């Protein structure tokens, strides 16, 4: 089946809406069930970076807790300057304090990702990270976003919903995690909008030469993509 991108309820709820607050908590459980932290660590390992990234951007960062877990899992990464970009400002003070204790400097940017991608600004990042985010965009907008990432970042890792039968079944069972109606409905939409095969590789901008790219399934429910500039010193595994 082709991708079917439909608006997800959480994206349009007021951040203070009790359903949104509950759903953000649900997403933390969903990340654990999907093994998102392990997947991100494996993606970083596959980049085989020549040096620790000094500047990192997370697009669609949400409450920032997944990146905080990743930072805690990488104790050798210190002095990192992190930008958490999301349309909604929902990063709690305790998460920012957690980064501070790890000697990470954090900038929370409240901005639409497509606006960021179209911005001609020259701010660059060593590494860009997205998790369960790219599937929100229809093909044309996805192309715009990936072009912005390729222009502004030297390496990129993404973990997305896998669009297959197993993930479809799993999306209908998230209620077993104690999730609310918003999360249950959005989970099904996420898988329908997810990725398979080489869809992200094919969407990666063709005019941005000098990139290595990899795309693969990450069991049980995820689909991964990583890219790095040749000149950045990464050697993709």
Structural summary, described in words:
The protein has 237 residues and is α/β, with parallel strands linked by helices. The chain has a single domain, classed as Rossmann fold (3-Layer(aba) Sandwich), CATH 3.40.50. 40% of the residues lie in helices and 19% in strands. It has a 7-stranded mixed sheet with strand order 3-2-1-4-5-7-6, with helices on one face. The longest helix is centred in the first third of the chain and has 17 residues.
Write a compact overview of the structure shown:
The protein has helices spanning 9-12, 18-34, 36-47, 65-72, 93-101, 113-118, 139-152, 165-171, 181-192, 199-203, and strands at residues 55-59, 81-86, 105-110, 127-131, 155-161, 211-218, 222-229.
How do the helices and strands follow one another from N- to C-terminus? Answer: HHHEHEHEHEHEHHHEE
* Structural class designation: alpha/beta
Reported CATH architecture:
3-Layer(aba) Sandwich
Span between termini:
29 Å
Helix content: 25-40%
Strand content: 15-25%
Number of helices: 10
CATH topology: Rossmann fold
Which outline best applies? globular
């Amino acid at each position: 089946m082709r991708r079917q991108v439909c608006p997800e309820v959480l994206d349009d709820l007021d951040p203070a809406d009790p359903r949104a607050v509950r759903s953000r908590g649900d997403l933390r459980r969903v990340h654990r069930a999907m093994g998102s932290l392990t997947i991100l660590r494996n993606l970083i390992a596959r980049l085989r970076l020549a040096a620790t990234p000094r500047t990192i951007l997370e697009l669609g960062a949400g409450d920032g807790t997944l990146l905080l877990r990743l930072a805690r899992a990488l104790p050798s990464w210190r002095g990192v300057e992190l930008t958490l970009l999301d349309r909604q400002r929902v990063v709690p003070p305790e998460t920012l304090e957690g980064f501070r204790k790890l000697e990470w400097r954090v900038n929370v940017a409240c901005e639409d990702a497509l606006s960021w991608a179209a911005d001609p600004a020259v701010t660059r990042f060593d590494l860009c990270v997205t998790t369960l985010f790219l599937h929100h965009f229809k093909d044309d907008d996805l192309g715009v976003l990936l072009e912005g990432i390729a222009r502004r970042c030297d390496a990129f890792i993404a973990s997305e919903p896998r669009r297959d039968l197993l993930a479809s079944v799993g999306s209908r069972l998230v209620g077993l995690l104690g999730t609310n109606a918003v999360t249950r409905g959005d989970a099904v939409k996420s898988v329908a909008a997810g990725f398979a095969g080489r869809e992200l590789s094919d969407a990666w901008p063709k005019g941005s030469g000098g990139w290595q790219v990899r795309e693969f399934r990450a069991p049980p429910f995820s689909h991964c993509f990583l890219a790095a500039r040749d000149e950045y010193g990464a050697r993709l595994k």
